[in-house]
Amino acid sequence: MAKNMQPVAKRCKALGISPAVMGYAKKTTVRGAGKNIRRKQSEYALQLKEKQKVKFIYGMLEKQFRSYYEIASRRPGQTGENLLQMLERRLDNVVYRLGFAATRREARQLVSHAHFTVNGKKVNIPSYQVKTGDVIAVKEGSRSSVKFSSLTGADAPVVLVPEWLSREAGELKGSVARLPERSDIEYEVEEHFIVELYSK
Questions:
Q1: Which residues contact 146 (CB under 8 A, 6 or more apart)?
Q2: Distance CA 59, CA 105 (A)
Q3: Could you report the per-residue pLDDT of 131-160, keeping only the tens digit for each?
Q4: HSE (CB half, 13 Å, CA atoms) of 193?
Q5: What's the predicted TM-score (pTM) here?
Q6: H/E element holding 165?
Q7: Are the C-beta atoms of 24 and 11 separated by less than 8 Å?
């Protein structure tokens, strides 16, 4: 499977993303900050940047991202919002948003290595689309590992879980309370630029 191995901090700076959105709260992008010269960007450049931003956040390559767009365009409602909802519903993103992984990259690896179950059944497909009522849990055999045992107890990191998901403190499982809405997106994005780019 192809992987996106771009340096996170450098790419975040180029796309105007806070590293915290990627789960890298300690990374900085101040190197060479004084060298930036603001230039007026063309409409195409703005559209391309928004697409690259969303692709980078979710760690996707063009072929898969285009496939998501095609599906979103065939569904009722606004294509851009449909696209963002589908990306948020990916199992690797849900694992990250529930606080079971520090970054989406780590979440993708953990899912691929079959550390999670959905409604009691093992799922190792990062792109799996969760539904309302689904229960995502760390597999019983993985709970004693250092990675997951550190997520419970007094020293467990505090996680800000989005409203569309639910997780009890100290529990290695969470659930989908409802489908994500546009207001649940944690980063700034002009999704209409992506729709315009693909509509040409």
A1: none
A2: 7
A3: 999 999 999 999 999 989 888 877 778 889
A4: 16
A5: 0.82
A6: strand 165-166
A7: no
